[in-house]
């Protein structure tokens, strides 16, 4: 075991020194170290089965390759000494030989029995642990990491444990333990036999180490080429519709061919290096070792006898396989730990949005929301909010409008504490949200995101997600209120229809209605709707609006909308511009004030577009997004609702 650790520890050191920058290098080293600790910890945790798993094959090998030859040597020695050659006299040797082979096989079966269990339990536990870690990550983490790559990393982290344990068992323990045994036996004959054998193995190790390290660079280039191939494949597959729409299949296929060819070239180069450079050093030394072993045995024969020649020759031949293992062990451990480290490096930066160590019990005075001097900036960006104040008394319905990119969605995410603010406070019912458990806070809020995605589950499961344990009647009521029932009836399996990855088999408006049904079922005191009806046609929107209006009674609501008709009835409208509240008031107040809102309203109700563009030259840049959106708005709805 000790040797095993140092072997993999060596891999860590070499791996760690690969990266160019000091920062990257130390992060990588820590990630590999962490991966190793997880794997090693897993073996220790289940030591009761791990110890027999690691040792039984090694003991089996001793029986098969070191003890059984002793029986043969004994027989040869017996005959050479002119002993009785009858079958009866030789039978004990033969039985001993057979018995040892049998014992070896039995030990191997026992070892594999325990190894299978060690592998399976380790993979299970690490799989659970990996997912648990990902579930604690904050929103920023998922903005920075792609789902595809995370999936691959977390699954490899657990599955590669199998190769880790197998390499430890088959390539390290099953070789090193018998070597120790062989040394003890050979020492009895002559210490020189041991010194030469171990010496030559060590020499091989020293000669091969720098070559293996040099091969490392080639392996890195090969792996980088692989990432380029898989990145391109994933990118094309996720954008398949765009590829088709632009008839770009051939272009993408050509690109793919080039990348695969490069991967092929680099793979071959790294493999050839292993075969032509590393093994060309090992091969002659291994031949030399066998020959030297035989020579020594013969030279020392005087005191040893023919038996020793047989044993020495056999032991030398068996142990030289360890020389070829150096490269293999390194290759396997390196690839295992590199892949595992791709996951553990994600754990080096702890999640920023975490529950406080001593959370306050949830006892909101009401359902009011307050933003106090809130400062927030996305990583590496300028502050989006700087001293933002916004008060939403309990039971008020607020419409949040303003230019695209103004920070409306960000504000909703901050209230949900998907990200943490840099300064200031956000209060819900008088309680600072950073002092609450995240689950408690989010239990108060029903949220419909701007671009709702669905699970690849049934329509029913997608709605029920909002409230586990909801009854069928409650789910149906929510579905009816959000006008989901209308389109579900035309789906092949009704509420049991699977909606495709991210809900791809539904239209944008249908997804939105499902998201609304979720919010309705959630039945929380605070409603957070981010463009919740933007993808609906005017008629459906009108229907859904009525349902929402009903839902909002006696609740606090924050409704983000570009289509101003959606929010005219709100108690108060807040106009957000570049992270600042530039205007507040009712629809009537704001029209009268004749500011940004009034101008937006005129754009959307038509007529003043050209005139306004000329007029507001200074604001043109700020409002570009709004104008884009406004131009596609539906005038009919505006007039319909603006009664
Ligand atoms: N994950 C992110 N990382 C960095 N910057 C971001 C991120 N998400 C949004 N931003 C930036 O923050 C600003 C505000 O974005 P936000 O989505 O809050 O705007 P919005 O008002 O909801 O716009 P829209 O009306 O188009 O939905 C934008 O400039 C955007 O580029
Ligand atoms: Mg938005």
Automatic annotation (TrEMBL):
Residues 58-335 form the ABC transmembrane type-1 domain. It comes from Nonomuraea zeae. The chain crosses the membrane at residues 47-67, 87-108, 168-187, 193-212, 281-300. InterPro entries: AAA+_ATPase, ABC1_TM_dom, ABC1_TM_sf, ABC_transporter-like_ATP-bd, ABC_transporter-like_CS, P-loop_NTPase, Type_1_exporter. Residues 612-637 have a biased composition (Acidic residues). GO terms for cellular component: plasma membrane. Its main location: membrane. Residues 612-643 are annotated as: Disordered. GO terms for molecular function: ABC-type transporter activity; ATP binding; ATP hydrolysis activity; ATPase-coupled lipid transmembrane transporter activity. The keyword Nucleotide-binding applies. ABC transporter involved in fatty acid import. Transmembrane domains (TMD) form a pore in the membrane and the ATP-binding domain (NBD) is responsible for energy generation. SUPFAM superfamilies: ABC transporter transmembrane region, P-loop containing nucleoside triphosphate hydrolases. Keywords: ATP-binding, Membrane, Nucleotide-binding, Transmembrane, Transmembrane helix, Transport. The keyword Nucleotide-binding applies. This is Fatty acid ABC transporter ATP-binding/permease protein. Belongs to the ABC transporter superfamily. Lipid exporter (TC 3.A.1.106) family. Residues 369-603 form the ABC transporter domain. SMART domains: AAA. It is found in: Cell membrane. It comes from the Bacteria. It is a multi-pass membrane protein. Gene3D superfamilies: ABC transporter type 1, transmembrane domain (1.20.1560.10), P-loop containing nucleotide triphosphate hydrolases (3.40.50.300).
């Amino acid at each position: 075991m000790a040797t095993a650790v140092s072997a993999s520890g060596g891999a860590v050191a070499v791996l760690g020194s690969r990266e160019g920058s000091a920062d990257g290098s130390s992060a990588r080293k820590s990630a590999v170290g962490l991966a190793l600790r997880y794997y090693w910890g897993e073996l220790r945790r289940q030591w009761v089965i791990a110890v027999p798993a690691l040792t039984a094959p090694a003991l089996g090998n001793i029986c098969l390759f070191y003890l059984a030859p002793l029986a043969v040597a004994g027989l040869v020695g017996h005959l050479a000494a002119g002993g009785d050659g009858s079958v009866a006299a030789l039978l004990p040797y033969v039985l001993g030989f057979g018995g040892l082979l049998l014992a070896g096989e039995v030990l191997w079966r026992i070892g594999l029995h325990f190894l299978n269990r060690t592998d399976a339990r380790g993979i299970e536990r690490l799989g659970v642990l990996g997912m648990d870690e990902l579930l604690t990550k904050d929103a920023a983490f998922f903005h920075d990491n792609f789902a595809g790559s995370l999936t691959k990393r977390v699954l490899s982290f657990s599955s590669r444990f199998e190769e880790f344990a197998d390499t430890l068992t088959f390539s390290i323990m099953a070789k090193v333990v018998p070597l120790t045994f062989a040394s003890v036996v050979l020492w009895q004959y002559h210490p020189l036999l041991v010194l030469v054998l171990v010496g030559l193995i060590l020499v091989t190790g020293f000669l091969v180490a720098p070559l293996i390290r040099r091969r490392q660079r080639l392996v890195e280039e090969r792996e980088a080429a692989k990432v380029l191939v898989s990145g391109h494949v994933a990118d094309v597959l996720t954008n398949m519709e765009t590829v088709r729409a632009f008839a770009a299949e051939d272009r993408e296929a050509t690109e793919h061919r080039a990348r695969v060819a490069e991967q092929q070239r680099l793979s071959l180069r790294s493999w050839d290096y292993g075969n032509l450079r590393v093994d060309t050093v090992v091969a002659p030394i291994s031949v030399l070792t066998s020959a030297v072993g035989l020579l020594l045995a013969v030279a020392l024969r005087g005191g040893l006898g023919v038996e020793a020649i047989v044993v020495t020759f056999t032991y030398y031949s068996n142990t030289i396989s360890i020389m070829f293992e150096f490269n293999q062990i390194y290759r396997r451990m390196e690839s295992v730990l590199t892949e595992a480290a791709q996951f553990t490096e994600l754990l080096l930066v702890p999640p920023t949005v975490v529950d406080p160590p001593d959370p306050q019990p949830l006892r909101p005075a009401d359902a009011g929301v307050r933003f106090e001097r809130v400062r927030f900036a996305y990583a590496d960006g300028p502050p989006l909010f700087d001293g933002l104040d916004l008060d939403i008394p309990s039971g008020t319905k607020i419409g949040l409008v303003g230019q695209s990119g103004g920070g409306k969605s960000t504000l909703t995410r901050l209230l949900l504490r998907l990200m943490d603010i840099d300064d200031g406070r956000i209060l819900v019912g008088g309680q600072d949200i950073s002092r609450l458990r995240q689950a408690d806070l989010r239990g108060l809020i029903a949220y419909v995101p701007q671009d709702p995605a669905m699970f690849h589950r049934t329509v029913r499961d997608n709605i029920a997600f909002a409230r586990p344990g909801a009854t069928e009647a409650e789910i149906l009521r929510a579905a009816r209120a959000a006008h989901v029932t209308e389109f579900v009836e035309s789906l092949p399996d009704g509420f049991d229809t699977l909606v495709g990855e991210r809900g791809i088999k539904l239209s944008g408006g249908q997804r939105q209605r499902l998201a609304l049904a979720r919010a309705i079922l959630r039945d929380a005191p605070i409603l957070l709707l981010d463009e919740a009806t933007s993808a609906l046609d005017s008629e459906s929107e009108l229907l859904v609006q009525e349902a929402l209006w009903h839902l909002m009674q006696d609740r606090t609501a924050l409704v983000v909308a570009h289509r101003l008709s959606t929010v005219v009835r709100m108690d108060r409208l807040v106009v957000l511009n570049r992270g600042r509240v530039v205007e507040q008031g009712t629809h009537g107040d704001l029209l009268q004030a004749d500011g940004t809102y009034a101008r937006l309203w005129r754009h959307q109700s038509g007529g003043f577009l050209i005139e306004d563009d000329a007029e507001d030259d200074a604001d043109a840049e700020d409002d570009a997004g709004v104008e884009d959106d406004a131009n596609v708005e539906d005038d009919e709805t505006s007039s319909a609702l603006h009664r």
